[in-house]
Amino acid sequence: MSNNNKEPIFIKEQVSSRLDILWKVHKKCEICNTQKWVIADELINLMPYKGVNLVIGGASYPKIMAICTTCGNTKLFNAMVLDALHKKVDKTHEK
Ligand SMILES: [Zn+2]
Fold it and tell me: Which residues crowd ion ligand 1, with CB under 5 Å?
């Protein structure tokens, strides 16, 4: 994900900690029965379906990917619900 000062940033470590607290049941992968999930470094974005044409500038639904490291099964979590996007702090003005 490219970042400039206006784009919110995704802090993976905060999301991992929050998911550890929230994810209480069925944490084993339903495909391979292991429990080795990693959070992807970047968010992905889902867009509403508006026919065959790609709609630019419409609603977007940023998602966090939790990926099973054994079989690749991937779960999506809504980044807004998990409060995973934060404004970039400009530290150039701090002394
Ligand atoms: Zn798995």
Answer: 29, 31-32, 68, 70-71, 73
